[in-house]
Amino acid sequence: MQLVREQRRESIKMSTRALYDRYQAVFSKWCTEAGYSDANVIKEKVLRYWTCLTASKEDPSKGIIILPIGMRGKRKGIEDERERGDDNSDSDSDSDGHDSEDTDDDSDSDSDSVNDDLGENVCHSDRGLPANAPSLSTVKLHASAIGELCRQQRVDPDNKVMFRCLERKPMDYPRDLITSYERRVAVTKRATDTDQGSANFVEEDPLENVKMVMVHFWHHNIQGEQSKWTRVITGLRHRADAALRFFMMCRSETTRRMRLIDLFGQNVASAVRKDQEQERKFVLGVVLMTRQGKMNNNGKIRYNVVVRDTDVEACPVGALAFYLLEYWLPTSSSAAPPPRVEDHDWVNYHLLSKSTTRTSEIRYATQYKQTREVQDYLNIGVKGKATHLSRRLGAFLARLTGATHEDISKHGGWGTNRLITHYLDGVDASVALQMAGFENGRTENFWLERNVIPDLELQRMVFPFIERACSNPEDKKHYDPFWIQTIDNIMLDRSIFYGRQEENIKIKKIKKRAARKVLSDEAISRRRHLCLLAHLRKVILQDAAVFLLAENKSFNKN
């Protein structure tokens, strides 16, 4: 048996070596024709070999379409449609695919000469693309690799192997190649009437489009990832995702990276003097705190905020509340177990988590697929990327409600000037209030007909674990003697410090000699999220009462 195994292993080695020798022979022949002194495999050689190989096939539409200047390989079956003269054609390239010596440097900087050196797929910007042409992202990726290779060859002093055509700047024009390709993409779209239907879709009513998406996810819970034991319902998750991306105008990566402790509730009503605290109106704002993003690479804390909408069907706070109710329920439809307030590791759970584990965010492919499916199902036109639709619609709604461009830029994270990023970087709910239907974005105009405070005992039946989270004296890390009173104040829309004066006097006598307790960042974030859940108790009860009305045909089909 051992002998048979050794013979089989030796046979595999022989076949592998034969296959490698055959490939190496082809590569060695190409290196000799290209002017290299040896056939050692290095990155520069492989990239150039791959480029020439894929660009010299008989069928041009199946190959990579970028040929750098100086690599003017002759492609079979392709004739130059610009009908250059014989003299120009003879001097255009030499026998081994490099620039001839009588071509001057100035011709390399001309974009027309760049296009002349390419194949049929890219050289004529006034013609459309072939059916099997690669996507624009593929072209950009390949052009970027070629440009980076050229820069490395120039600055690397240890690079002993240089292209003969390197002195003639063979890879300086990837941007010209991309521009030419983009023109051909535009010609193709114009010829085929692509994107004609979605060109002005945002001019109609952005809020109605978002309401259609949210109602669809409410009724048609998308069947998510399936395993042998469970079937995951992800409708409420995608409903909350779409609502937050629309009203916060945040990018798709922002919602994917959200953790539970990144969300907290705050009274966003206009600040008043301390003696007028009792007259201050309570306006619940759900705040998302981010530290990283496309426009935030230095780790600075940024805030996005949403408030309750006058239209219950499009309310982002309600969408988040019902999703968190499903998230924390023991009978959750997800395959992953729900968080337990006794287990302190839930602070690292992602809001939009995978179906199998709470500590991993959903993939972009999942987010894109569900977004695209609902857009196709509801026949909503898409201009640009599908995952950018909510962000685009949110900006249009804010403009229709009277928000200025500066306020929209700040709310959506487009503002990059130093005043916004370093000084006016706090929570500003003016745009959120305008998008929610309140005139001029002022908290004095905030009023909801359904905002009636339910009975406290009824509220405690929603998220029943909140009271015991920080009220256990044995848990010295998270114990708070004012926790029960704080939660009661939240449920009654009062300040969390309401009614503490008399108790503070008693506590001071007890803790006069004790060291002051300093909470960790994790403990503070944990309490803030639990306070948010306490705020969402009445949101769930109030919105559910509206959904159950017989007049509400969108949500109550019975």
TrEMBL record:
Q: Where is the composition biased (Basic and acidic residues)?
A: 76-87
Q: Disordered: where is this region?
A: 76-130
Query: What are the protein's GO molecular function terms?
Result: DNA binding
Which stretches make up the Ndc10 domain?
217-546
Question: Where are the compositionally biased (Acidic residues) regions?
Answer: 101-119
Q: Which InterPro entries match?
A: Ndc10_dom2_sf, NDC10_II
The superkingdom listed in its UniProt entry is Eukaryota
Q: What is this protein called?
A: Ndc10 domain-containing protein
Q: What is the lineage of its organism?
A: Eukaryota, Fungi, Fungi incertae sedis, Mucoromycota, Mortierellomycotina
